């Protein structure tokens, strides 16, 4: 596996740590019959995601090799940019957000093939330590940073505003890319808050740089925070590879659930965060993780309405336009 765009990739876990974790979970993947591995280009919409860091963990426990896959991982600064890569036929699979499913209705040649995670327990509203914002109620009319327009963070900022009774435009949403850029903007006063992963929020607190003032644990109970996308070409021409990719992923998800210590160690290295920060978020992350990829009809309906809120589409697309049936639930 090559990882040509991940700025936070760390050293691999020791063989002893991985084998110990895998033995406890029964998750080491036995290799399939010898054959040339299929090379795949895989992307994650953002680097700062616990579930998305499962891509590197899958390599470490042999999940990709076990399905005869050789993967190359790329990282983008939001769903919009990852969907542009699908449009350019530059990637085969992508881990992104539920609202990203709407881009298929705009002609992007990729569709969701499995749900990756449910309600957004892993997202939070973050401010700097010395911010004038003392509580979530102080954010009315203020500027909130997100990754890209049309991304999950964009929708959550608007959902947050609506939940406060301020309407969808009760805060000013500012797309600014990755966390480092948004943190710099908060320090300079350009932003008042940011929508971030809970791990980033906990890490800012641990470093004395920021505070988590609200989370989305219960705000959106019927939702697919993250989904797995495949290119239309892959779906049409290589459905067996899609199924093998999904088997490898959901074996990895089971490992993440059953092997906490090894999972925390791997993801902390990939995300370049202290293990105690990742461990603190582990419970919420596992609660929202899917272990078979099945789509929820209620969640799909919420996502359909979110696409109008974000301006991705004027008319909500039919569910059939948003995901490809026949791949989930995944069994192995």
CATH fold assignment of the largest domain: D-Maltodextrin-Binding Protein, domain 2
- In the predicted model, the low-confidence regions spanning at least 5 consecutive residues are 2-12, 22-28
Looking at CATH, the homologous superfamily of the largest domain is: Periplasmic binding protein-like II
Largest sheet: 6 strands, mixed
Rg for CA atoms: 19 Å
Order of helices and strands: EHEHHEHEEEEHEHEHEEHHHHHH
Q: Architecture of the largest domain in CATH?
A: 3-Layer(aba) Sandwich
Provide the domain count: 2
Strand content: 15-25%
Work out the helix count. Answer: 13
Amount of helix: 25-40%
Structural class: alpha/beta
Global outline:
globular
**Count the strands?**
11
Distance from first to last alpha carbon: 23 Å
The CATH class name of the largest domain reads Alpha Beta
Mean pLDDT over all positions = 89
Question: Largest sheet, order of strands side by side?
Answer: 1-3-2-4-11-5
């Amino acid at each position: 596996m090559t990882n040509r765009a991940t700025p936070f990739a760390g050293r691999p876990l020791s063989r002893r740590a991985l084998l110990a974790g895998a033995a406890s979970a029964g998750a080491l993947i036995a290799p399939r019959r010898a054959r040339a591995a299929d090379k795949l280009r895989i992307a994650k919409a953002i680097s700062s995601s616990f579930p998305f860091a499962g891509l590197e963990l899958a390599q470490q426990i042999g999940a990709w090799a076990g399905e005869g896959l050789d993967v190359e991982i790329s990282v983008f600064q939001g769903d919009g940019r990852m969907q542009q890569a699908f449009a350019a036929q530059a990637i085969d699979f992508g881990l992104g957000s539920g609202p990203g499913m709407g881009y298929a209705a705009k002609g992007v040649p990729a569709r969701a093939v499995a749900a990756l995670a449910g309600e957004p327990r892993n997202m939070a509203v973050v401010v700097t330590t010395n911010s004038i914002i003392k509580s979530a109620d102080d954010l009315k009319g203020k500027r909130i940073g997100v990754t890209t327009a049309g991304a999950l963070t964009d929708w959550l900022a608007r959902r947050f505003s609506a939940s406060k009774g301020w309407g969808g435009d009760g805060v000013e949403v500012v797309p600014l890319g990755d966390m480092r850029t948004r943190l710099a903007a908060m320090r300079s006063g350009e932003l008042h808050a940011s929508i971030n992963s809970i791990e980033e929020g906990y890490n800012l607190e641990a470093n004395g740089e920021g505070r988590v003032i609200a989370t989305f644990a219960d705000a959106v109970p019927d939702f697919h925070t993250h989904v797995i996308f495949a290119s239309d070409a892959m779906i049409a021409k290589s459905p067996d590879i899609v199924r093998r990719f999904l088997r490898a992923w959901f074996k990895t998800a089971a490992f993440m659930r059953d092997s906490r210590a090894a999972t925390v160690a791997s993801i902390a290295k990939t995300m370049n965060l202290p293990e105690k920060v990742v461990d603190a978020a582990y419970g919420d992350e596992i609660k929202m993780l899917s272990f078979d990829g099945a789509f929820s009809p209620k969640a799909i309906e919420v996502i359909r309405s979110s696409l109008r809120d974000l301006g991705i589409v004027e008319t909500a697309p039919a569910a059939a336009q948003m995901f490809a049936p026949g791949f989930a639930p995944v069994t192995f």
